[in-house]
């Protein structure tokens, strides 16, 4: 049984991006403008109308931009998986069956996170701050589950229709806590970036609200590009380690 090192897995993912930044930008060059347009549409549509019982125009725009972002991220991830694992670089605007299967599997994995997320939110809202801390173990446990299930995603990108969630779970047997460690390290990196961006937005708000809004949209698009590639790199590393028996 192979034992995963979370730090080596994350380092390997960073090295993949550092070694091929030009490929990452080539993959994202079509989708970043699409995400920018989606971001500006979403920003100027404003928040949803909580008083309306019907879908408003703003809510339809938010659904559309959400779907566009999901497809963009999945398209970039599929290209990255195939480049790292098979040295194949497809078209930047990739919209084939692998992308849509990848998106469907991503939604299923996100839904697996939904129940613990709702439980944590309920704990935070209903319990005192000291009691709400019980939600943290749920986050760690669900993160380990989601990370192990996500090992299927590179197989989807490669067109392997026989590799299932059960196969991903079996391949990573005995590595639940290391996979949870990968999840926590990834979350810490994301929160660190988010903190820096939040501070930048706060400073820009004091200068110009339109400038701050433009910065938020551009930063969100670039963050989606980075995390599409970075998450794909993590799952590629895990797939290579557990399934293809590669070393970091």
Q: Give the integer mean of the pLDDT values.
A: 88
The secondary-structure element order is: HHHHHHHHHHH
Q: What summary fits the major beta sheet? A: none
* Terminal Cα span: 16 Å
The beta-strand count equals 0
Q: Structural class, please?
A: mainly alpha
Low-confidence stretches: none
Number of alpha- plus pi-helical segments? 11
Describe the global form. Answer: globular
Overall tally of structural domains: 1
Helix content: over 70%
What does this protein structure show overall?
This protein has 248 residues and is an all-alpha fold. Helix 1 packs across helix 11 and helix 10 packs antiparallel against helix 11. It has one domain. The chain has 11 helices and no strands. 79% of the residues lie in helices and 0% in strands.
List the helices and strands and how they pair.
Blueprint: H1 6-19, H2 21-28, H3 31-45, H4 57-86, H5 97-126, H6 129-132, H7 135-149, H8 152-157, H9 165-171, H10 176-207, H11 209-242
Helix pairs in contact: 1-10, 1-11, 3-4, 3-11, 4-5, 4-11, 5-7, 7-10, 10-11
State the gist of this model:
The chain has 248 residues and is mostly helical.
